[in-house]
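Consider this:
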Amino acid sequence: MEALSVFLFGQCFCDCPQLVISLAQYGTMRFNEIKRNLGISQRMLSLTLKELERDGLVNRTQYPTIPPKVEYNLTQMGQSFREPVSALSYWALEHLSEIDAAREAYDKSD
């Protein structure tokens, strides 16, 4: 159970929350739309989407067109992840100044 908690904590602090919020807000999106919304690298987005698809949070639909068309949206389980992601986001906003202070103190100690 501890290993699962550590994994989920890691998932929550990557680009996963922003991605879940974007997909929840805009619905089905193509790769480049998501990339523009999040402002992250293509590689990081690709890895994150693959992990979320593997975890059952994201659907990936590929269409046999030229050029290839691939769309992503949240699964039912992904939709249920919105509430905890929102709670985590609000927590982070409430503690942002404390987090910044802790980071600054840590960086000065190096």
Notes: The chain has seven helices and three strands.
